[in-house]
């Protein structure tokens, strides 16, 4: 068979499969690159397109998946190489993946691109986790919603705060609000830390790894609430930057 005939010979099933994988990974790489450039330089906030599902965490997870599939694809394509060449390439793949996952882990913990920084400052909790708890961690403080209840027509919500870092002082901002069923905001009027009640703007200590029970008392509502569509907690981090945590759809006990 001549060289020209070799070039025109039909591809085997394995070659077709390898070609399909290569093209798919190349296409996915181009798509991810375009998305990264779009959300980093062209449109820092994808929500302008109504694409609320595009979050910085989802982008990091998508890139991690692409890296893993890319490594599997390369391993498949070099399986017939000589042992020395295959071993060298495998070493480079492992080193590259280790470095890549380190960068992605850093990006996941502390994002660097603009829309991710904005999203990291506003966290929404819409339901319980697998353990049935409603909690989030912001600025190394774990905030768990214990529940909300009516005392007469005074709504109160109790949280358990656990400081995961060094001892610090903490204060909820006066813009913290509970919303009634019609969307009306109820002001934050007082706070009880443990058994001690104080003014809403009072600072209190959070000791490392010591769960602190905090109850927020809001202004009286016109009618007794059966549920609240949202509670918005506002406070500042150690760099004096505002953070917002919103718990949605909470039944009042």
CATH fold description of the largest domain: Immunoglobulin-like
Strand content: 25-35%
| Mean pLDDT over all positions | 80
Secondary structural class: alpha+beta
Main β-sheet, in a few words? Answer: 10 strands, mixed
What does this structure look like?
The chain is of the alpha+beta class and 253 residues long. The chain has two domains: 3-120, no CATH class; 126-251, Sandwich (Immunoglobulin-like), CATH 2.60.40. Helices cover 37% and strands 31% of the residues. The chain contains five helices and twelve strands. It has helices at residues 3-8, 13-42, 56-77, 83-109, 114-121, and strands at 122-125, 134-138, 141-151, 154-163, 168-170, 177-179, 185-193, 196-198, 204-206, 212-218, 227-236, 242-251. Strands 1, 2, 3, 4, 6, 7, 8, 10, 11 and 12 form a ten-stranded mixed beta sheet that branches. The protein has a two-stranded antiparallel ribbon with strand order 5-9. Strand 2 (134-138) and strand 3 (141-151) form a beta hairpin. The longest helix is centred in the first third of the chain and has 30 residues, at 13-42. Mean pLDDT is 80; it is low at 1-9 and 47-51. Keywords: Membrane, Transmembrane, Transmembrane helix. The chain crosses the membrane at residues 20-43, 49-72, 84-104.
Topology (SSEs and partners):
Elements: H1 3-8, H2 13-42, H3 56-77, H4 83-109, H5 114-121, E1 122-125, E2 134-138, E3 141-151, E4 154-163, E5 168-170, E6 177-179, E7 185-193, E8 196-198, E9 204-206, E10 212-218, E11 227-236, E12 242-251
Parallel strand pairs: 1-12
Antiparallel strand pairs: 2-3, 3-4, 4-10, 5-9, 6-7, 6-11, 7-8, 7-10, 11-12
């Amino acid at each position: 068979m001549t060289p020209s005939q070799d070039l025109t010979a039909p591809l085997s099933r394995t070659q077709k499969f390898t070609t399909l994988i290569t093209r798919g990974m190349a296409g996915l790489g181009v798509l991810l690159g375009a998305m990264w450039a779009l959300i980093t330089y062209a449109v820092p906030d994808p929500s302008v397109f109504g694409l609320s599902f595009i979050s910085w965490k989802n982008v990091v997870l998508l890139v991690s998946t692409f890296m893993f599939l890319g490594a599997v694809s390369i391993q498949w394509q070099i399986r017939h190489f000589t042992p020395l060449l295959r071993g060298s390439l495998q070493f480079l793949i492992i080193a590259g993946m280790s470095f890549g996952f380190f960068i992605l882990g850093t990006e996941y913990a502390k994002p660097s691109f603009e829309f991710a920084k904005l999203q990291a400052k506003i966290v929404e909790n819409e339901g319980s986790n697998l353990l049935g708890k409603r909690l989030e961690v912001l600025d190394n403080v774990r905030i768990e919603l214990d529940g909300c209840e009516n005392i007469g027509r005074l709504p109160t919500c109790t949280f358990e705060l656990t400081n995961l870092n060094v001892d610090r002082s903490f204060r909820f901002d006066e813009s913290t609000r509970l919303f009634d069923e019609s969307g009306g905001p109820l002001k934050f009027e007082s706070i009880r830390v443990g058994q001690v009640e104080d003014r809403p703007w009072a600072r209190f200590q959070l000791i490392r790894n010591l769960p602190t029970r905090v109850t927020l008392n809001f202004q009286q509502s016109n009618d007794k609430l059966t549920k609240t569509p949202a509670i918005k907690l506002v406070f500042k981090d150690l760099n004096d930057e505002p953070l917002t945590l919103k718990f949605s759809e909470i039944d009042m006990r």
